Amino acid sequence: MAIQGPIPVEFAHVFPRGAFAAGGFEPLRDFDASSAERFVQSKDKVSGLPVWVAEVIDGDPAARDKTARVKIAAADQPVIRPRPRRGCRSCRWSSPG
User: Fold this and answer.
1) CA-CA distance, 45 to 8, in Å (whole number)?
2) Where in the sequence is the domain holding 52, given as residue range(s)?
3) Do 82 and 94 form a contact (C-beta atoms < 8 A)?
C-alpha cells in the first residue's frame, strides 16, 4: 500500500549541507478557496493548521536546483532568527534555549 498523505522526511536528508532563508515565511494561498477579492490561507490536510512557506537556498554547491520552497504547518507565523556564530563578539542576538 502506498503512503497516504505527506511523506515524512528528515531535514538533513533533503538539505545535507543546510539551507539558508532567502526571506521570511508568508501565508500559502489556497488557490481553490481564494478569489481576486479574497485571500484564503491554505490549511494542512492532517492537522488543520495554517500553512506557511519560505524560499530557501540549498547549501550544497553542487545542487541542481539552488532554491526550494519550504512549507510549514503552524498556528502562528514562523519567524526566522539568525544563529550567532561561535566567537562572534559583535553578534547582539541571542539563541533560544
Assistant:
1) 14
2) 12-73
3) no
CB atoms within 10 A of CB 82: 9
The predicted-structure confidence for 40-75, as pLDDT tens digits, reads as follows 999 998 899 999 999 999 999 988 889 999 999 999
Q: pTM here?
A: 0.73
C-alpha closest to that of 71 among 36, 30, 39, 33: 30
State the DSSP H helix or E strand holding residue 12, giving kind and residue range, or none if neither: helix 11-14
90 assigned to some structural domain = no
How many whole angstroms separate alpha carbon 18 and alpha carbon 89?
24
Structural domain count, the chain: 1
